[in-house]
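Memo to structure team: turn this sequence into C-alpha cells by end of day. - J.P.
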Amino acid sequence: MPYDEFLEWVLYDPQIGYYQNSKYRVGKFKHNDFYTSSNLGGVWGSLIVEACTNLLGENDPGLFTFVEIGAEPGSSTLDGIENPFEQVRVIRLGDTLNVPNRAIIYSNELLDAQPFKRFRYHQEADDWFEIFVTLEGDELIELDLERKGPLPFPPPHHPTEGYLIDWPCGSLSMMQKILYPPSWKGVFLTFDYGLDQNILMQDRPEGTARGYYRQKMNSKLLDHPGEQDLTCHLCWDILEHCLKENGFSPSIRMSQESFLLKYSTSSIQRIFRESEGPMDAKMLALRELIHPAHLGHGLQGLASTRF
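Reply from structure team:
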C-alpha cells in the first residue's frame, strides 16, 4: 500500500491505530513517546489566551469560540485557565469537525500527525519512484514502484541516487477541512515542526520522516506498527498558500520563542514579576517554552486571520 495509506492504518485504524490508543503518549516519563508545549499546562494555556486575544485585534474576544483540535484524551490547553472567550470547545479524534461562525482555531502538533507520502529518486531511470509498504513473510518492507501521475512537488535540482522526499500531503488535506466552510471568521493558530519548500527539496536528502518510541527518535518507520508516533516536517509554503486561497490575511510565521515574546508579552512579564526565583515551577515551564535549546526554536507558530 502507498505510504500515506499505511500511515492512516497504523496511526488511525480503530483497532490498532497509535492515536486510537487510550494510553498517555505525551509526557516526560520513559513510557511516553514524546514531549511538547501542551505538557506545560497552565503556563502554556495562559500564553495562548493572550496570543489569541492579541491576534483578534479590535474584535471582541467574547464573541468568539476557542476551538482546540486534536487535544490528547482527558486534557485541553485551557483547562482551568481564565479566558475572555464566549465558549471553549475541544475536538478530539472521532469528533465531528464543526466550526462555529466566529472561532479561534488552535492546534499543537496536529498537522504533522497526518499521513504523508514518500518518494525516492533513482538515478538510472532519472525519475522519482513512489515508496510503498508491503509484507514479505512476516516483515514489513519498503518497495519502490513507478509512480502514477505527476509529482506533487517541484523536484530538487540535480538529485543524487536515493534522495528521499517525505511529502506531507495529509497536512494540506487537514488544513482544507479546518478552513472550510469559508463562512467562519476569526483566527487560525497552530504550532508545529516544518520547513520552507526550498529547504525540503534541496537540503534534506534523507527526508524528514521519523518515529518516536519511548522518548527516542528513530528512522525505523516500519517497526512497532501502531505503537510508535510517525511524523514528518510540514511544508510551510503550501500551508500558507492554502490560508491565502481561503481568504485569510498574510500569514504570521516565526519560531515559538519569537511568537510568544511578541504576542504573549504581558503573561511572560507577569510570570517574571510573580516568580519566587529561577527554580519556580512557572519560570521553569516558561524557560522550556521559549528557550532555543528546548521547545522555543524547533517549533514554529503559524497564524492568520479572516474577518
